[in-house]
């Protein structure tokens, strides 16, 4: 049996500009201001140009992302990475705007994909979604003791439309997401702590976020509940923020 080859560690080039857009419904979402403060601290520490828009309607969620994409494509400098933070009430696959109308997450994700945003083609696009994805609650369970650039001269390099994206949800499909009235959400606060305190590839950092959230207990209506994030990745390389 031959020895397995070590994994090639190719990383995204993070030497260019880093941009972030946060769209947050604060209306009837107590504690969201604490999350915004924490995110701004994180983006500042990680060298991002950060923009915050409060209380977008469903239509404005789409419009602000479209404007973000157009601004990125219009830049003359090299953009390394984009973060989009979406915080609102929600259902599976949908977010509720300040006007109580719904916007499809899929439509928001499409704006920055490799087809629609040329400046971010083959660059990491990270979406952080702090929203409910259903009505279920989790009481918890008891536990007992290759290189794509290698191409021939006459063939243009191609990549799939949906690579280089990372979707980080505050909870798993079908479940509620929790937020403290004053301290903010367990998810955003934990994510900011890990991203600012620790170094390593982003997927390893997200494993630490999941571990910390799995150990924490959220008290809802007097009862302890469990919640954990869900990560969906099509990243092709390692992504380092520090």
Number of domains: 1
CATH architecture: 3-Layer(aba) Sandwich
Largest sheet: 6 strands, mixed
Overall geometric form? globular
State the name of the first-level CATH class.
Alpha Beta
H and E order: EHEHEEEEHEEHHEEE
Uncertain parts: none
Q: C-alpha Rg, in Å?
A: 19 Å
Strand proportion, as a percent range, falls in 15-25%
Secondary-structure-based class equals alpha/beta
CATH-defined topology: Rossmann fold
Number of strands: 11
**What is the averaged pLDDT score?**
92
Helix content: 25-40%
Number of helices: 5
Widest beta sheet: strand line-up: 2-1-3-7-8-11
N-to-C CA distance? 39 Å
Subcellular location: Cytoplasm; Nucleus
Family: Belongs to the peptidase C14A family.
Keywords: Coiled coil, Cytoplasm, Differentiation, Hydrolase, Nucleus, Protease, Thiol protease, Zymogen
Protein name: Caspase-14
Indicate the topology:
Blueprint: E1 17-24, H1 32-45, E2 49-54, H2 58-74, E3 79-87, E4 90-91, E5 94-96, E6 102-104, H3 105-110, E7 125-130, E8 165-169, H4 186-197, H5 202-215, E9 218-220, E10 223-225, E11 230-233
Parallel strand pairs: 1-2, 1-3, 3-7, 7-8
Antiparallel strand pairs: 4-5, 5-6, 8-11, 9-10
Helix pairs in contact: 1-4, 4-5
Structure description:
There is one protein chain. With 242 residues, the protein is of the alpha/beta class. It has five helices and eleven strands. It has helices spanning 32-45, 58-74, 105-110, 186-197, 202-215; strands at residues 17-24, 49-54, 79-87, 90-91, 94-96, 102-104, 125-130, 165-169, 218-220, 223-225, 230-233. The strands form three sheets. The protein has a six-stranded mixed beta sheet, with helices on both faces. A hairpin with a 5-residue loop joins β5 and β6 (102-104). The longest helix is centred in the first third of the chain and has 17 residues, at 58-74. The chain is globular. The mean pLDDT is 92. This is Caspase-14. Pfam families: Peptidase_C14.
């Amino acid at each position: 049996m031959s020895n397995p080859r070590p994994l090639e560690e190719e990383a995204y080039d993070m030497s260019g500009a880093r941009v972030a857009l946060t769209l947050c419904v604060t209306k009837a979402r107590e504690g969201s201001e604490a999350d915004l403060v924490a995110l701004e601290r994180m983006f500042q520490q990680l060298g991002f140009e950060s923009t915050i828009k409060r209380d977008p309607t469903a239509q404005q969620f789409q419009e602000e992302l479209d404007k973000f994409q157009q601004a990125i494509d219009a830049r003359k400098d090299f953009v390394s990475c984009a973060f989009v933070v979406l915080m609102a009430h929600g259902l599976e696959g949908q977010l509720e705007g300040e006007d109580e109308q719904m916007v499809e997450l899929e439509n928001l994700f499409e704006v920055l994909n490799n087809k629609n945003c040329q400046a971010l083609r083959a660059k990491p696009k990270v979406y952080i979604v702090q929203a409910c994805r259903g009505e279920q609650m989790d009481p918890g369970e008891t536990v007992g003791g290759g290189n794509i650039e290698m191409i021939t001269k006459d063939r243009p390099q191609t990549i799939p439309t949906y690579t280089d994206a990372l979707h980080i949800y505050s909870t798993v499909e079908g479940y509620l997401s929790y937020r403290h009235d004053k301290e903010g959400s367990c998810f955003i606060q934990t994510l900011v702590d890990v991203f600012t305190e620790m170094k390593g590839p982003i997927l390893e950092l997200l494993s630490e976020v999941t571990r910390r959230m799995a150990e924490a207990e959220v008290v809802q209506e007097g009862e302890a509940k469990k919640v954990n994030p869900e990560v969906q990745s099509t990243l092709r390389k390692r992504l380092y923020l520090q």
